[in-house]
Amino acid sequence: MKRHLCLEEVRDFIKDHKAVLLYFSTRACHVCDDLLPKITHLIKNRFSLIHLLEVDSQANPQLAALYDVFAPPVLLVFFEGREAIRRSRFVGIEELASLLSRPYELLFS
After folding, report:
1. Residue 1: is its pLDDT beyond 50?
2. Which domain holds residue 47?
3. What is the sign, positive or negative, of the torsion defined by CA atoms of 75, 54, 7, 83?
4. Residue 75: which of 106, 105, 46, 50 has the closest Cα?
5. How far apart are the first and last CA of the chain?
6. pLDDT digits over 34-75, tens only?
7. Domain-located, residue 13
8. List of E strands, 1-109
9. HSE of 42, CA atoms in CB hemisphere, 13 A
10. How far is CA 106 from CA 7, 90, 100, 103, in A?
11. What single-letter DSSP state applies at residue 81?
12. Residue 6 pLDDT
């Protein structure tokens, strides 16, 4: 669900949800294409209260620049509106799960 988004839409999305994962990718990024289904599965099955928003860095260059996204894929995780986790390029799913576990449990337990 890559969409052309404006800054206000992304900020509102982050503000309206307690936990958000922004996934920056591009159309030509094969790593991005391989990683997204794994992240979606992880969020759906283990961290269902995190809201996932995919952002196309090519279609949204100003948004990517604002969030300092230069080489996709980039994951930004926000808890209560604040960036808590940033990972780029090669992201291990188990590493991501480990990073998400503690703040997720603290926020939603």
Report:
1. no
2. 7-108
3. negative
4. 50
5. 30
6. 999 999 999 999 999 999 999 999 999 999 999 999 999 999
7. yes
8. 19-25, 51-56, 74-79, 82-88
9. 18
10. 28, 27, 10, 5
11. T
12. 86
As given in the structure block, the two tokens for residue 17 are 């949800």
For the stretch 2-37, pLDDT in tens is: 456 788 999 999 999 999 999 999 989 999 999 999
pTM of the model: 0.92
In a domain, 1, yes or no: no
Whole-angstrom distance, CA of residue 2 vs CA of residue 5? 9
Q: Is residue 60 in some structural domain?
A: yes
Work out the number of other CB atoms within 10 angstroms of the CB of residue 80: 13
DSSP secondary structure letter of residue 85 = E
Residue 38: DSSP 8-state:
H
Q: Residue type for 21, please?
A: L
Structure tokens at 21: 């994962």
